[in-house]
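Dear colleague,

Thank you for sharing your sequence with our group. We've completed the structure prediction you requested, and as agreed, I am returning the results in plain text so they can be pasted directly into your records. Please verify that the sequence below matches your submission; if there's any discrepancy, let me know and we will rerun it promptly.
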Amino acid sequence: MSIKVRYFASLKEQLGRAEDDLATVREYTVSQVWSEANPGLDMPDNVLIAVNMAYVDQTAVVKDGDEVAFFPPVTGGER
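Please find the predicted structure tokens below.
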């Protein structure tokens, strides 16, 4: 089983990489994918998550061939 994990914006900067490829023999939840890819690091609060370009929560099940993307929360600026 292979899962592509991608990080965007400040998460990419903080982790020092844009993506990971996880090889596993079982299905994971999104939360478990984060833990496997980033041992010892808690998933940031309010992170946005997409599986195959559809927004999901941390309990979504990830299957073989899926792509999981983590985005930091987006904030607006002054106009």
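Summary note from our side: The CA atoms of residues 63 and 70 lie 16 Å apart.

Kind regards,
the structure core
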